[in-house]
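Work Package 3 committed the consortium to producing structural models of liganded targets before the mid-term review. Because experimental data for this complex are still outstanding, the team generated a predictive model from sequence and the ligand definition alone, so that downstream docking and mutagenesis planning could proceed in parallel. The input record is reproduced below exactly as it was submitted to the modelling pipeline, together with the SMILES string for 2-acetamido-2-deoxy-beta-D-glucopyranose.
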Amino acid sequence: MTSLGLFFIVTLLGYCTVYSRPAVGHLRNMDSFIQAVQQVEEIAGHDDAMTVHFLGTSHIYTAAASLETAILNTSSFSFFDKALHHIVTDNGEERGVVLAPDGTTVALAPLMLGIEAGLNAQTEGTPAVGLFPLTLGRTLGLTFLSLQDFPPSYRLGPNGCWDNTEHPKVFKLYRPATIATDAVIYGGMDGIILGTHLVNLAKSESIPPLSEILKGYYIFNLLEGKGLDDLPGKISPKRRELSRSILEPLNLQNEVMETLALVWKLERTEWIAFDTGIGQALKEGLKEFVKKYWDCPQIIPRCQWGAKPRDGTPIPLSLPLDHLFVHHTYTPSAPCLSFPDCARGMRAMQRYHQEDRGWSDIGYSFVVGSDGYVYEGVGWNTVGRHTRGQNSIGYGVSFIGNYSSVLPSRYSLDLLRRWMVQCAVGGGRLVSNFTLKGHRQAVNYTTCPGDALFSEISRWENFRE
Ligand SMILES: *[C@@H]1O[C@H](CO)[C@@H](O)[C@H](O)[C@H]1NC(C)=O
Ligand SMILES: *[C@@H]1O[C@H](CO)[C@@H](O)[C@H](O)[C@H]1NC(C)=O
Ligand SMILES: *[C@@H]1O[C@H](CO)[C@@H](O)[C@H](O)[C@H]1NC(C)=O
Ligand SMILES: *[C@@H]1O[C@H](CO)[C@@H](O)[C@H](O)[C@H]1NC(C)=O
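The resulting structure, written out as tokens with the ligand in place, is given here.
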């Protein structure tokens, strides 16, 4: 398989890093990684074909192998090695992952393998056969099989928390890791999206350098009033819908099965071949994958936006609920357009609710940003404080911004109307014939969620007077 190529990138990039001693910070974020890639590209000369060369078939394996031994013994060599090598330590630290600017933690190995498979196929003019197995297929197949005796929801994930999102160094998982941690899944999705994009470049188009490919996908600016609407191109907040549109037409169960057969052949793990429950395990597992990563929106967890702990004991909700209340935050009054911006808004709201209002936590169940993400408030299982007298019968979801006279972007509206709803109903948290209301319908002292937004939601399915 093409993992040889990846090995080659690691070594060659590492080699250049060692001898040029560039001022690469060792922060585990995507910017540092891209910066380091860029430095290597500069050292290598401004030749776009260089990227292809890094990522193409490695025909000088022995040279690479001897470079590696030299490099591994050099104390300054660490960044690429650590950045690409995926492991989970005994104390639950996940390595080989970086924090992307959109607030998502991504494993680099499946990302780079996807890009590599795409580049190989594009330059050789062949179909990208290895793309799915290398990015997601192997991971999914092995996690579903190895954890057959656990409930399907336990066979995927978990997510985790960084020590500090501005200066990320250590990423700790919430619970024992599966083979398919969230970061590995997200890296796999990004790898398949970028790999497919590269395969589809016309043969005559020049292939951008690796750093440009990564920048185009991870680093972008959203415009006020537009958010993700009408934004052409492939960018990281759309990873769920983009990966779904690429993979859903395939028969995933067959694809995973074929991947496992290949894994068995290459790694000689006979237990896979003789296991009769494979079909069932894959079917259940893929169903869970679709529910968790495609039907639900990506929700930025509390630790990621820097939540303070709640004061006092949470009161559990009794699920499923039958109401969904829609709010706007009013202040912050501007829609937030990036992860740092939305996270700051979340912290400000929590501070206001806890310190000025004396509540135990941020009041909302969830908050929708204009950066393409939903932010976790008190979450699915805890009674919030959003709609007087009705907090225990419904979720309270707020849009960041003042929607008295303007609307959130279509994309943000869809995050609630389509994604949160299908996630909540599919996950048994909300009954399917639930009642959707604006905050103003439940109490008579507010115009929340604003005239414009209220008029919008009054046309949604499930809205009731
Ligand atoms: C790496 O360094 C150690 C100790 O300095 C040495 O024993 C070993 O042979 C070196 N390995 C290689 C592959 O150079
Ligand atoms: C919210 O928007 C309305 C209508 O544009 C405006 O009158 C009001 O001052 C705004 N409030 C804040 C806090 O921005
Ligand atoms: C929702 O469905 C349940 C069960 O079918 C029914 O008892 C309930 O009255 C329905 N609620 C509404 C608001 O239609
Ligand atoms: C609305 O306000 C009036 C007067 O303040 C109050 O008596 C009444 O109970 C309120 N109705 C609701 C639904 O809160």
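Reviewers should note the following from the model. Confidence is low (pLDDT under 50) at residues 1-25, 45-77. These observations will guide the Year 2 experiments.
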